[in-house]
Amino acid sequence: MISLRRQFATLLLVLLAALWLAPRAHAAAGAYEAELPAELASARDMCALVPCKDVFPGASHFSERKGQPPYVEAYDQASEPRKLLGYVMLSTDITDTPAYSGKPVVTLIGMDTQGRFVGVKVLKHSEPILLLGIPESALLKFNAQYLGKSVADKIEVGQSRPDENVLGLDAISGATVTVIAQNQVMMASGSAVARQVGILAPTVREPARYAETGKRLSWAELVQQGTVQRLRVLPEQVGLDKGPDPFIELWFGDLNHPDIGKSLLGENGWNNLRLQLKEGEHAFFIVRTGGKESFKGSGFVRGGIYDRVQVRQGADSFTFRDLDALNLYGIEAAGAPSYNESVIFIIRSHAFSAAYPWKLSFLGNRVDRATGTRSFTSFDTPYWLPATMLQGGRPTINEPDAPWVRVWKSRAVEIALFAVLLIAVTVVYALREKLTRLSTHKNKWPVNAFKYSFWALSIGWIGFGAMAQPSITQVLTWFHALLFQWTWSLFLSDPFIFLFWIFIIVTVFLFGRGLFCGWMCPFGSLQEGIYKIARAVGFKRFQTQLPQKWHDRLKWVKYAVFFGLLVVSMFSMGLAEKLAEVEPFKTTFLVGVMNRAWPYSLFVAAILGVSIFIERPYCKYICPLGASLAMPSTFRWFGLKRKQDCNSCKACAVGCGAQAIDADGRIDHRECLHCLDCMILYTDTKGCPPLAKERKRREKDGLEITPIGKNGYFIPIHPATVQDQISAKAAKGPDPRWPTAPVLPQTKAGSRSLRWMAKELVDHLWPWSREGWASRRALQIAGFSLAIAASVAWVMTALGTLSSGAIIGWWFGWSVYEVLIRLSGKRYVKDGPWWRDQYRRAGVMDMLSYVGFKNLLIGAALFLAIKTVVGLA
């Protein structure tokens, strides 16, 4: 045993030394959220702004932008005669495919005249910190795999399939979505330029064959059937102050179709337009009906280029010069709006076909109001003629699957097994009472066999394998998405994290946070595993717990960390993500301790080192993710069982590793990690002191030893009652089955059905009370003023005169006030399912949890309602 202890200690020292001293591949984060020149998207001399030589080392001279989509020619020298070596392209000139962060990876790409990639450089990305935390060096290494490969090759992320002529690329562990999106960017960019310069055959689309009815349509009818579309950009979308008017509002539509063209231009106008179009050319119109911004742009003034609008169809982009524009003298469709700028554009490329979908893009600069940085972005509206207006209907289009769909398909087996694991954990825990009745304090294996197995799978497969460690950054992202813009594709992009969060949300409201934190959290399981192994090899005598008074103080630190990150995220999500490094998850599982700077690795080593001596120190005192899950755990439906004697017997409290049982025997489900040791004692006739005492009495008196009932006591022997088994001291104490003393609001007494629902609604929306008016009259009166101000703020937000950040500030202020006013009057919360009238006295954290969660849902509903009203307007 001594030898085993020494081996363990030596191994631990080696691990700590390795974490501290090992060399690290810590790449400079120069491309992460790098500030690019504001004029990069429109400058003719692109290579004066970005290092084109880095992606085409053999070139010494680069042309100005040419073609559509734009590209740059690379030459061996500046003077004649010079040799064309290849082409350089900026990915965002061609495609804005978003990666996992929801933003594109801005990439500079070099391609020779044969279509082979010769250089790749990431100029800007948003991937490492947001959610996944992949190291930048891994992204650079992934891009290097393209060098030497041809744009004509069929390149996919994954294994090569020679029988299908597929060249495979090695993915980045934990960042599958990012690299799939990046592969689409590389291939779409290279293909678009290769088609222009003749390396690849140009796109061929069947021309449209129109189905003509001869009917003249009004403007409203054209809009209703989708043949006239609107592109609307709001001021806040480009970083300006929110206002009642749009930044720009454009209406556009096809003019080649006889029904549409004649409805808009009239018979003579449409016939005149047809005379000016050559075979294969296509016309559409644009009018500006709102906003002060022009769609012509500065390029029109300098060189006759309309650099603010563009038509995109598949991988092809079409821009316009003054020679491609005709005057639009008027719209004859009944009910057409007034406009202050108009034009008819002609698409002269035969690659365009009105039978296929296309989109109009408005291109502009967006200002980040927090940093002042400018970024080029586009706002798109899709357009596709209705099937009834095309002979034979719309053509069949095989669109590539979205990145998140491809991820789900490529890892279907693993995802299915993961889902089965989560279901199995839930089922096993739901049957916990049967397992604990099979266990004793000396033989916990009926429970521990499952628990230890889940720990091992959580650490090995979920943590280090699938890298599916949930994080507080996801909570912050979901919080912002719920309030501002919910995007399913963002959350579906990582199937393991997505399924894990479904499991977490469901089980938190059913059982509390303990099932995830105590059984399935990879880092929590790693801490627990270290603690258990250390105990098994002889470190038990060094293991301890903090004194209860210090534990009761330090457990609030994690809540302070969580609220701090939440507040910071309202001002800067980027800064919040950086501060979220207080979580060791990214270093441990996602990036790896060998790929981080020494402070991060030392932080992980310190936590795991302390875990040898204190059970789950990070979970209990620091974890902001645990704090965020602890708050809704206040309202879990099912708790762990307690009996009246628990208020005087300390057996469970002494053995509680989470220190979640107070002096009155009550379990704090916000802190409980569901080890189930107390549930094992609950029915253990030898381990539970009250049961052991009753068992001995019955054995001495020769009485029947009956089974343990659901209440935790022996089933009574007639005519005895359970009350005979409860000690006199325990009978006089508080009821430990309730986290706090039970109460029943007078307003709820005797209510049923609709009346009960009405009172329930009023109880949640109306925080004032008679009790509060009697004790805190000034606070109650002040609340009416604050309520009126907050209501006005919501109305101003709906009218577009108040920013989202301002309304969030008002809502936070109202929530703080509501906590105070409810504590002074309506000091109660529900315990268990919401449809039951089980109320108990609320502590400060109870009220914070209730008000915070309730107002988050109300705020999200109001935001959605406002957006719906604004959208309809």
From TrEMBL:
**Which keywords, in A-to-Z order, does the entry hold?**
Cell membrane, Iron, Iron-sulfur, Membrane, Metal-binding, Signal, Transmembrane, Transmembrane helix
Q: Which domain of life is it from?
A: Bacteria
Q: Where are the transmembrane segments?
A: 412-431, 452-476, 496-516, 556-576, 596-614, 778-796, 802-823, 844-866
Task: Read off the InterPro entries from this record.
Answer: 4Fe4S_Fe-S-bd, 4Fe4S_Fe_S_CS, FMN-bd, NosR_regulator
- Tell me which residues make up the FMN-binding domain: 99-193
Which locations, inside or outside the cell, does it occupy?
Answer: Cell membrane
Please name the SUPFAM superfamilies in this protein's record. 4Fe-4S ferredoxins (SSF54862)
Principal cellular location given in the protein's record: membrane
The record's section on PANTHER family has:
ELECTRON TRANSPORT PROTEIN (PTHR30224), ELECTRON TRANSPORT PROTEIN YCCM-RELATED (PTHR30224:SF4)
Q: What is this protein called?
A: 4Fe-4S binding protein
The organism of origin for this protein: Acidovorax facilis
Upper taxonomic classification of the species?
Bacteria, Pseudomonadati, Pseudomonadota, Betaproteobacteria, Burkholderiales
